[in-house]
Amino acid sequence: MNDQIVEIEAPGLQILVHSPAFTRELEEGGRYADKLADGRDLVDHMNDGHLLAVGIRWPTEGYWLHFSSSMDHRIIARASDHAVFRLSVREQQLCVRGGDDLFRWKRRVPDEQVVTAEDGDYLVTAMMTPYAGDGQVRIYFHFARAGLAADIGYSEVPELFCESPLL
To answer: 19-28: per-residue pLDDT in tens?
Structure first.
């Protein structure tokens, strides 16, 4: 995966990342904030690796999202928080969208919110750098190939906090 940037404005309380192959059953305009089309909730699908959902603290701010398979150790040193996810890529595409889309689903996302990646299973580390209220909130997503399907086992959508790291 090459470095790719997605900018998203006012995403709501979550940022979602998924392959379109895993959301085909969702109907245009449908409301999926509580349950998806199969009756399972967001966390169930997240634990299966069908989508990534990360809670955020500033729902009305702009977000700068960096997707990469290379790990930048300077980012790790500056990151105020991180979370690890399992994510499957199918059809070499990932859609990036705000959590508000769960209240009124749109099948398509704008082209600038589509990331390309090789098909396969990944462990994704999401890292947020400290945010002082100026400019966009920055989140880095590092993709590492996963040999076996990792069992993440979240009971709720993890939230990235954005406080200065303790050194």
So the answer is: 999 999 999 9
* C-alpha gyration radius of the chain: 15
> Comparing C-alpha atoms, which of 130, 118, 148, 109 is closest to residue 57?
130
Inter-CA distances, 12 with 9, 70, 75, 88, Å: 9, 28, 25, 24
To the nearest 10°, report the CA torsion of 57, 112, 69, 71: -50
- The confidence band for 62, taking pLDDT boundaries of 50, 70 and 90, is very high
Residue whose entry in the numeric block shows the structure tokens 């998924």: 18
Cα 85–Cα 124–Cα 38 angle in degrees, nearest 5: 45
| Number of other CB atoms surrounding residue 100 within 10 Å | 15
CA separation (Å) from 154 to 18, 75, 110?
17, 24, 29
Q: Where are the beta strands (DSSP E) in the chain?
A: 4-9, 14-18, 51-55, 62-68, 81-89, 93-98, 114-116, 120-128, 137-145
So where are the chain's domains?
4-115+132-145
- Confirm whether pTM is higher than 0.85: yes
